[in-house]
Amino acid sequence: AIIKLAQGYQDHPDTLALLQESARSDKHSWVRGEAIKQLAQGYQDHPDTLALLQESARSDTDSDVRGEAIKQLAQGYQDHPDTLALLQAWARSDKNSWVRRTAIVQLAQGYQDHPDTLALLQAWARSDTDSSVRVTAIEQLAQGYQDHPDTLALLQESARSDTNSWVRVTAIEQLAQGYKDHLDTLPLLQELARSDTDSDVRGIAIEQLAQAWHNQPWLWEFLRDRTLHDPFERKKLWDDNPRQAALKAILEYYPNHSQIQSLLQDRADHDSDPKLREFAQDELAKLRQEARGKRQE
């Protein structure tokens, strides 16, 4: 109803007041958020809209509503003298991490050239207490400041030593995708694929290596080694096994290799992880079915 009202009756004298009332006081957060969006997009130049968006961004009790107000302020009022300072304040101190991340993205994308933005992103990437904020800052640095001399070193540092596995994974992905040709990237990813203490990090490093370097002659033996020797031990049903990640990469990039069947048989018979044994057995069955089909042709 809010969308139809705003888009179909924008010029009706009651519409603006109804949207303002909904944005301020509707009991449903999604209604407040949609009203804010429609006000920002349809009544951007009305003298009350900016103040209402600022009020919602500061004090709405729902984080989604605050985030929507922040996004609309950043995109519709980028040049207003208050917007940058408000975004910086929300990025630093909103009590909800999603709101902070929204503000960080808007700062990085809308104020990339402002002298404060890079330093703030670097500080959040290195030392924010919330891991999701560190992830967002790392992503924005890698995407918006790829050529800055400090970005590569920060990503390498995060990939090696951040205490949170999700942050390390994010840094690994950004290194593989944005710095593939740098001399340090390949050995770092190989090191992390072999020796990171977290199995998710090892698995992602294996996947990124396979995607970025599958034309390299060393990759087969590397993936084979990881398929046989990664130290993963299953603790939870939903854990991802790096040995299985390596085996999947082999099946994807080396489907006709002469050693695939023997490797699958080895894992089907001897792997300590029942899920990987089952996966290998299924893949063996597919290979045998394909072979029977070819013989019958």
Short description:
The protein has helices at residues 2-8, 15-25, 29-42, 49-59, 63-76, 83-93, 97-110, 117-127, 131-144, 151-161, 165-178, 185-195, 199-213, 219-229, 242-253, 260-270, 274-296. The protein is an all-alpha fold.
Care to describe what's here?
The protein is an all-alpha fold and 297 residues long. Among the domains are: 1-90; 202-290. Helices cover 72% and strands 0% of the residues. The chain is built from 17 helices and no strands. It has helices spanning 2-8, 15-25, 29-42, 49-59, 63-76, 83-93, 97-110, 117-127, 131-144, 151-161, 165-178, 185-195, 199-213, 219-229, 242-253, 260-270, 274-296. The mean pLDDT is 94.
Per-chain topology:
Blueprint: H1 2-8, H2 15-25, H3 29-42, H4 49-59, H5 63-76, H6 83-93, H7 97-110, H8 117-127, H9 131-144, H10 151-161, H11 165-178, H12 185-195, H13 199-213, H14 219-229, H15 242-253, H16 260-270, H17 274-296
Helix pairs in contact: 1-3, 2-3, 3-5, 4-5, 5-7, 6-7, 7-9, 8-9, 9-11, 10-11, 11-13, 12-13, 13-15, 14-15, 16-17
